[in-house]
Design brief:
The protein is an alpha+beta fold and 148 residues long. The protein has one domain (6-147): Hotdog Thioesterase (Thiol Ester Dehydrase, Chain A). The chain contains 3 helices and 7 strands; from the N terminus they run ββααββββαβ. The strands form 2 sheets. Strands 2-4-5-6-3 form a 5-stranded antiparallel beta sheet. Strands 1-7 form a two-stranded antiparallel sheet. Strand 4 and strand 5 form a beta hairpin.
Length: 148
């Protein structure tokens, strides 16, 4: 990184609204739904960066399997809240990709949850394989985007 440059990660933003079915008896979003919203954010970030996950599966014969997921819950989301899912590529190393997430309530931008997922590129046989070059380049650029 040259003098005067700062690293500014590319962050995708996706909005979702909490449905009644996503809440528990206390009216709070059930914890596993945050993982679903992580996926929504991840797929949309890839789309925003010019990557089509469905095309990758069809044309390249591979997928990006989740091998680890973490979530830290800060405050509850409730029915009909509009949420912002912020997603960033944290690291690309060979066939391994790490994404980071922040889920905010849109009304006041209160941080509700943050987390990470780690993925490994696999073939149809579920064995690890190299990341297709096009995807490695675009995801790597998103992870290490610099701004002068």
């Amino acid at each position: 990184m040259g003098k005067g440059e700062t690293v500014q990660r590319v962050v995708g933003e996706t909005r979702v609204r909490v449905r009644y079915a996503e809440t528990d008896q206390m009216g709070v979003v059930y914890h596993a739904n945050y993982l679903v919203w992580f996926e929504v954010g991840r797929v949309e970030l890839m789309r925003q960066r010019g990557l089509d996950y469905k095309r990758m599966e069809i044309e390249e014969g591979c997928g990006i399997a989740v091998v680890e997921a973490t979530a830290r819950y800060k405050a509850p989301a409730r029915y009909d809240d509009e949420l912002i899912v912020e997603t960033a590529v944290l690291q690309v190393r060979g066939p391994v990709v790490r994404f980071g997430y922040r889920i905010l309530r849109a009304e006041d931008r209160l941080l509700l949850c943050e987390g990470e997922t780690r993925h490994v590129v696999v073939g149809r046989d579920m064995r690890r394989r190299p990341m297709p070059k096009k995807y490695a380049a675009l995801l790597g650029a998103a992870a290490s985007h610099t701004q002068a």
